[in-house]
Design brief:
There is one protein chain. The protein has one domain (2-110). The protein has five helices and two strands, in the order αβαααβα. The chain has helices at 2-20, 29-53, 55-60, 65-80, 89-110, and strands at residues 24-26, 84-86. α1 (2-20) packs across α2.
Length: 118
């Protein structure tokens, strides 16, 4: 049940952030649900692989390269989903950053703790 709540919260956050940023466009709520599902998959499967492959760069940048990986995840999601559009890499970075903040705020408002097991 917690997974479903996290997906819905992320979908709402995607809609909110897409309305705030002119470089990001989401057609409808079902598209934002699909974006949330793909982001969950990417963060669970693809992000750890990219993180392991880029350990030297991440160490040299003192962890800042992880922000670039987040932008890459957003760009990959953009390529996979029709109805979700991110203008360029910089908008993807900004979207990723604001999405994290918005999701955190929404989780705090509804009392949902994504790290907590039910």
């Amino acid at each position: 049940m917690n997974f479903i709540t996290n997906i819905i919260v992320t979908a709402v956050a995607v809609l909110i952030v897409s309305h705030l940023l002119p470089g990001v466009k989401v057609d409808e709520f079902t598209t934002s649900l699909l974006v949330a599902l793909v982001l969950a998959f990417m963060n669970a499967i693809v992000k750890p692989i990219l993180t392991i492959l880029t350990i030297p760069i991440t160490l040299l940048s003192m962890g800042l390269f992880l922000i670039v990986i987040n932008g890459i995840i957003i760009i990959l999601t953009d390529r996979l989903i029709d109805g979700f559009e991110v203008r360029n890499f910089w908008w993807a970075l900004l979207f990723s950053f604001i999405l994290s903040i918005t999701t955190g705020i929404l989780n705090m408002i509804i009392g949902n703790n994504p790290k907590q097991e039910d």
